[in-house]
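In the current project phase, work has continued on tokenised descriptions of protein folds. One protein thus recorded appears below exactly as we store it.

——
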Amino acid sequence: MSESKAKQLGTYVRRARLAKDLSLRGLADMIGVSFSAIRDLEAGRFREPRPAKLAKLARALEVPVEDLYTIVGYTMPEGLPEFGPYLRTKYELSSSEIKQLNKLFEDLAAKKKGGRRG
């Protein structure tokens, strides 16, 4: 990522963090990184943030992950992701919890399909 993109990302993150009234340390603790990582990110000194960390950052700041990915230059995958990885990423669910939700959605889909008249 270029220096200008790194600075743009840092500005975006700083504004979002301040809008949520979070300290650097508070945000760092929320997403499991060091204080200095957030400080460096906001200062535009962090050149290669990992997509998973950007996703956690977006959740913590309640901003669209697409915004962060766009600034960094990452592309969003085409189409919808599989349900399991989506749930694991968005809600940090365990495999057991994902299986329970899959079963629930399969049951709902079956009811909907069975209830159709045609």
